[in-house]
Design goal:
378 residues; tocopherol cyclase activity; 10-stranded antiparallel β-sheet; 13-stranded antiparallel β-sheet; globular; Tocopherol_cyclase; single chain; signal
Length: 378
């Protein structure tokens, strides 16, 4: 599949909404609406990754649904063979009355703004399972119990996508899009975490690594999407993240991607959005490979993403109009081959290679109809 992105379609939308940030949004009186958070820890010592996601859904009005409306999941790599492991999800379901969300210690009464520092708590408790996620200005703490797994830890200050609360969407975040994606931190330093299998009395401890933190909100996950994220170790401090796919509006749909790449040692800090670039994507979801070329006025970014089928999870849950349903597959063992070109002094049509990297232990996700055989949509 080959897709192009045009900013012209976005110019049809001019109504603004509240700011785009990590804090919770005020839920509307009627659905559909959802909000969800995602964290991935990259442990440099163990060459391992642990994921955490949680969120809640207000279903479409008039729908009688049995789908869970509040969920939390711990993701871990298991069944390892030759250093490649399958991603496995441990899930817990909750009801809205088992959930408490606060901002600055008070109920949510307004949408977040760009400039304010994130300060919220998301708590869920069913008695046997539960979790508490606390985000303050300079730290993140989490304490979750799902099934026989316990995940606890603390992160240091965020490494934001952009100054002043800016995220991947830039000014597009103020448009009434059906779905929003915000990256709060590209690589928060890991202070400590422990993952415990309570039944087996086995504990994994880590304190040398980083964590990626992000959030989605809107009507529902799209019909089709690709998401990826990864970092290098402290020797280079490289990070990248991308998300996009088929975005459905009331009367039309379009394909759009948001991409960011950072290499501070080469002074590279570039973003690609529908208003400043054109993205061409070739996706072979059955072979688990994606080739992306993003072109802006001065930069071209080429990314080749791939992983083995055995490293991908079974269907993970995602927010839909009726609640959380099986929606996507993901791997923490993907590889990203990245090349960055910059326009030379000879003009914008002559580009020079300025950076070439291969990152391992990358997160790669195929969702909706972009998953091989639409496995998770049946």
């Amino acid at each position: 599949m080959i897709t192009g992105v045009s900013c012209l379609l976005f110019s049809l939308l001019i109504m603004c909404i509240g700011g785009n940030q990590f804090d919770p949004h005020l839920f509307p009186t009627t659905g559909p609406f959802f909000e969800g958070w995602y964290m991935r820890i990259t442990d440099f010592d163990r060459r391992d990754s642990i994921g955490l996601l949680f969120g809640h859904v207000l279903p479409k009005q008039g729908i009688n649904t049995s789908d869970p409306l509040v969920m939390a999941s711990i993701l871990r790599r298991e069944n390892c063979q030759k250093k490649v492991c399958q991603l496995v999800s441990y899930n817990a379901m909750f009801t809205p009355d088992q959930t408490k969300v606060t901002v600055n210690g008070k109920p949510v009464i307004s949408n977040p703004d760009d400039a304010s520092l994130a300060n919220f708590q998301f708590e869920m408790n069913s008695g046997s399972e539960g979790g508490l996620f606390t985000q303050n200005a300079n730290s993140t703490t989490f304490d979750f119990r799902i099934g026989n797994l316990s995940l606890r830890g603390e992160l240091g200050p965020s490494v934001p996508w952009a100054p002043n609360g800016g995220g991947p969407e830039g000014w597009l975040s103020h448009l009434p899009l059906p779905l929003h994606w915000f990256v709060y931190s590209l690589r928060s330093p890991l202070k400590i975490y422990d993952l415990t299998d309570i039944e087996r009395k086995q504990t994994i401890l880590g304190h040398h690594g980083v964590a990626h933190l992000e959030k989605n909100w809107g009507l529902s996950f799209p019909k089709a999407w690709i998401w990826a994220e990864g970092v290098s170790d402290y020797n280079k401090n490289i990070s990248f993240a991308l998300s996009g796919g088929l975005v459905q509006f009331s009367f039309f749909s379009l394909t759009a991607y948001l991409i960011g790449y950072r290499n501070p040692f080469e002074n590279i800090d570039i973003n690609f959005r529908p208003d400043n670039s054109v993205v061409v994507l070739q996706n072979d979801d059955c072979k688990r490979e994606v080739n992306i070329t993003a072109r802006s006025l001065f930069y071209t970014l080429e990314i080749n993403l791939f992983s083995t089928n055995s490293s991908f999870s079974s269907c993970l849950f995602g927010p839909q109009e009726t609640g959380f349903r099986k929606a996507c597959v993901e791997s923490y063992d993907a590889v990203a081959k990245i090349q960055v070109y910059k326009a030379s002094v000879l003009g914008v049509f002559v580009h020079k290679l300025i950076d070439k990297q291969t990152l391992t232990d990358i997160a790669l996700e195929f969702g909706g109809t972009y998953d091989c055989g639409n496995m998770c949509m049946t």
